[in-house]
Write a structure and sequence with these properties.
single chain; 1 helix; Immunoglobulin-like; 4-stranded antiparallel beta sheet; Oocyte secreted protein 2; mainly beta; secreted; PLAC1_fam; elongated; signal
């Protein structure tokens, strides 16, 4: 896969008949979970303190219509699994503990995979390409002590 980040978009349906939209992004270093806090089935607004990621990590960016959990992949009990030589799978859970005691607490399993191959480090040239002539500029330019002294000395104004 040529993409460094695979994005998984999931609409999760909880057993309590609450619909919650969750978007997951990940890279080799970061995991970001975005949650839209409106349960469509009952027109219920979910508060930020009712959700946490993994081992008690709260939403660290709270907006009116989205909560974001942005953490390093080594934090919050996020687990890393090697799927192949080039692919890593990150696994964690999102916990919903409602304020309303009529609703049951929920646990949602989340997964996101990413490639170990960076698109920034992938060579784009081949051996069959036309080679450019070497630069006409001096590549091994060395300064002398005298030249350094001239560049660093300033006239004595006193």
């Amino acid at each position: 896969m040529a993409l460094e980040v695979l994005m998984l978009l999931a609409v999760l349906i909880w057993t309590g008949a609450e619909n919650l939209h969750v978007k997951i992004n990940c890279s080799l270093d970061w995991l970001m979970v975005s949650v839209i806090p409106i349960a469509e089935s009952r027109n219920l607004y979910i508060f930020a303190d009712e959700l946490h990621l993994g081992m008690g990590c709260p939403a660290n960016r709270i907006h009116t219509y989205v909560y974001e959990f942005i953490y390093l992949v080594r934090d919050c009990g996020i687990r890393t699994r090697v799927v192949s030589e080039e692919t890593l799978l990150f696994q964690t859970e999102l916990y919903f503990t409602p304020r309303n005691i009529d609703h049951e607490p929920q646990e949602i399993h989340l997964e996101c995979s990413t490639s170990r191959k960076s698109v920034w480090l992938t060579p784009v040239s081949t051996e069959n390409e036309i080679k450019l002539d070497p630069s006409p500029f001096i590549a091994d330019f060395q300064t002398t002590a005298e030249e350094l002294g001239l560049l660093s000395s300033s006239p004595n104004l006193l």
